[in-house]
Specification:
By secondary structure, the chain is an alpha/beta fold. 26% of the residues lie in helices and 29% in strands.
Length: 346
Amino acid sequence: MADTMKALVYQGPGKLEVETRQIPIPQKGEVQIKIKKVSICGSDLGAYRFASDRFAPPLVLGHEFSGDITQVGEGVTMLKEGQRVTVNPMVLCNDCYFCKRGEGNLCGNRKSMGTAIGGTQTDGAMREYVTVPDWMVVPVADNVSYEAAALLEPCGVTLACAKKEMSRDEKSTVVLGAGPIGLLIVKFLKALGIEKVIVSDIIDKRLAKAKECGADYIINSKKEDAVFAVKKLTDGYGADRVINAAGEFLINQSFEMVKNGGTSVLVALAHKKVEIDPMEIVGRGLKFVGSYMFTTEMKEAAQMLADEKLVVEDLITSTYTLENGKAAFDVLNTPDNEEIKVQIEL
């Protein structure tokens, strides 16, 4: 095997360059993975658009990926060469209060692949090979495609969100935003048995896809009053729960859509400050909670794929080579583009 590889390196907003780098060798307790597919996440696109300490260049982006194990380091006994895998991209300390409770998503010492979170640049998967500790690896069944396996990280995020504050008698849930995260949430809400799933967005093609994913009702908020429409579909009370997968600009609308005593869940990575009326929360007994990453849900979703209880390949709309990776980002950066999920193949 050659000792060099190609990597798509982020050099700052609007700048991605293909570079030649050394192939990493697995150390004790690590495995080497030959990358097959990498999905472009909204956070990757955010780095491409705006400078941020979370993505300090030079940096290899990409934390949603799949591939095969090509080497195992000393001491690795539960994994083997040739095994199909993906990776939980959270690099945890495994020593803090939260990690010891199985709540690694709350670890204050965590780093994350494809970011500079935690003050350390941790290269991601937009390169031919990666090495990771064996405990980060999530095995994938042979009947699961590389395309689907490269969506398991957002599946973990969205399954955790779909379960967040779900009540036993919940009948109606609104999803704000029909991008990749919103659409996966729809799939999981229906799998969890929610009777009435309502999706609001401003792009008709995405709303049509939401219908295909199982949404019972769709609302184009550019064409009709979304709050009025939700109230009409819920006997005037509002939904049991509203999940905001769009952004901070819809936080107040989520409060208007939810019933008294209901729950608003924010999963969108919102970075801007927003003004809210606390009396909306107190006076109506609302819950307002955040949903961040996952604990066991990535493995749960992997099992659902293996059992053929979940299909996600239908969300992939385009595939690019690593050499044309910048073109993929440019397309996604185009206003009102109709892409849903774009992948890079290696």
